[in-house]
Amino acid sequence: MRVAFAAIALLIAAPAIAREKAVDLVNPLVGTLADFGQLTPAAVAPYGMVQLGPDTTPKNHAGYDFAASRLRGFSHTRAVGVGCGGGGGDLLISLLPDGAAPLAPMDKASERAGAGRYRVTYANGIAADLTATRGAGLLRFTVSRPGRYMLRVDAVHAYTKRHAATLTATRGELWATMTAGTVCDEGAYTIHSASRITVDARPSSGATVSGSAALLPLDLKRGAIVEVRTGLSTVDPAAAAAVRDTELGTRPFAAVLRDTRAQWQRELSRIQVKAPREQRALFYTSLFRVMQTPVAIDDPDGRHRGSDGRIHQSAPGQTRYTSWALWDNYRTQLPLIALIDPARAADIARSLVALYGEGKQRWSTRTEPFLSVRTEHAGIALLDFRRRGIAGFDAHAALAGMVRESDMLQRDTPDQQIEAAYDDWAIAELARDLGDTALANRFHARALSYRPMWRKVFENLGPDADVVKARGLYQGTLWQYRWAPVFDLDWMVATLGRDRFLGELDTFFARDLYNMTNQPDIHTPWLYAALGRPETSARIVHRYLTQAVDHPYANEGKRPQPWHGRSFALAPQGYADGMDDDAGAMSAWYVFGSLGLYPLVPGRPEWTVAAPLVERATVTLGDGRVLVIRKDGTDTPTITVGGMSQPRGRLILQ
């Protein structure tokens, strides 16, 4: 089979691409300026609960702004690029000279961030080093001047509404329980912490607790090292102490950092790319963002709290995940995890099924175990996982939950009808896979009932076609939502006719009607490849990957003048203005575009294929096989088939 611009081979093994380590190329400062990504330089482990990072004034949605020069302290949790006002900010810790103002000047020239580490010098000589494990954070202060200092631990600080906070001195430690609003304050989560403080490796206690904050005066000599080791748990503060002691213990900072960086290297090495250094750095920085959500919340003993507020126990060898932003990342990030990390995808699938048994809601519940946003389209994600070979979860329980949820879906506006139809299509497809023909037929008919609306609203667009939120749409235009029913693409093409469909898609891009900064239409460049024009897909995708372009849209409306700049860049202004990374959704788009693959229809076990941006990539699939992708200078290079089928413009791994 021949496909334009890409050569793909599935091999048992492939020669390693000799490059500097992927972990050394990650730059967590990308996307941390103002509203260009809403990201954070916090120290974090792969899929870790703890995001231990700086809180600045001013700040963005993750507590930090690269342009800021004043530091408030360091907190342990953050949502990653998810809009509204962000979320997290739990347990803020600061060390300052006694009597100093609470906002300390930062030495920006000293600031460094990498995978698993953040470092900065502030307040005229205090150096702060941060690293993290899955459920624990290690904050190390080194003072350059002798004198009296104040260590402050604040359990009230948060980026959303703080509902409750308690802080107590227990067994020479500080234990806290904190409840705050989830992202957009749509629900609430409760997290517990346990912190141990040492000065030059000796335990230090005697903090004075007032309300939900504690102050510990310290008389320090020059070069003294103050460490705060904190564990987090969804269970209770004692469990948080066990997390801390298990994951950190008394290991030196360097040993903890070394292990976390080794974890990052293993995860990032699932994909190896050959490309210019700057391109590789942006690729691995994007992959780093992909691997931060959802987060693993099991304590070492397997306990965790569910979305129902009750304590549950994971089976041996299994992990519970949470921190969902599914409306955004079911389209890109979850399919990428399924491709490169099937074992983790199976745990994520089991976690999604568990949501249905715990009273799954469209957004967050009032009893979440951790930061979360929204869980729409969990059923599509589960169908997609299953059809991509992810096993080990109860598909019958998933189907039952999806059926119950269907009656609660909103179907008032055109976009809601399309999204509900996609969910119903997933029910029909999963039911058919499981042998329930009657249920499959019922939901297939229900799914396709959106079609009369689509013909009325989208077949011939009216004067409001380029108006953001026209007819009640959510964050988009009629032009952008027109292409949303990808599960029914063949019908849309047949309804318009192939020539008209492609011609109006040409118009869509020629008139800059595409919105790269939000999810509803991010798949549209790949429609060309699905219809036999992969070279057009590659040209458009590569333009958005590498060039400064006009970005006309914001969530609130169309801009009077487009914002012009890179959609993705290796810089603090790493994304287009107003573009949220949305829990790895946009970073995954960058990764897929670089590879020349795209999951155009989540729920179908295929990848749309176009030219890769990188010269070569090897993708470890998790079963001993390696997918090799090579850029080819010819228009119709040969694709080697081994363990896959290759219809034109598509890749189906078997």
Radius of gyration: 25 Å
* Span between termini: 16 Å
Beta-strand level of the residues, as a percent range?
A: 25-35%
Q: What is the architecture of the largest domain at the second tier of CATH?
A: Alpha/alpha barrel
Oligomeric nature of the chains: single chain
* Helix proportion range: 25-40%
- The secondary-structure class comes to alpha+beta
Named CATH topology of the largest domain: Glycosyltransferase
Mean pLDDT across all amino acids? 93
Strand element count: 29
Give the biggest sheet: 11 strands, antiparallel
Count of individual domains = 2
The CATH class of the largest domain, by name, is: Mainly Alpha
Tally the helices.
17
Characterize the overall form. Answer: globular
Instruction: Extract low-pLDDT stretches.
Output: 1-18, 634-642
Summarize the structure.
The protein is an alpha+beta fold and 654 residues long.
Question: How would you characterize the overall build of this protein?
Answer:
With 654 residues, this protein is of the alpha+beta class. The chain has 2 domains: 225 residues, Distorted Sandwich (Beta-galactosidase, Chain A, domain 5), CATH 2.70.98.10; 322 residues, Glycosyltransferase, CATH 1.50.10. 28% of the residues lie in helices and 26% in strands. The protein has 17 helices and 29 strands. The strands form 7 sheets. Strands 2, 3, 5, 6, 7, 8, 10, 11, 12, 13 and 16 form an 11-stranded antiparallel β-sheet that branches. The protein has a 4-stranded antiparallel β-sheet with strand order 1-27-26-17, with no helix packed on it. Helix 6 packs antiparallel against helix 7, helix 9 runs antiparallel to helix 10 and helix 13 packs across helix 14. The chain is globular. The two termini are 16 Å apart. The relative contact order is 0.14. The N terminus is likely disordered.
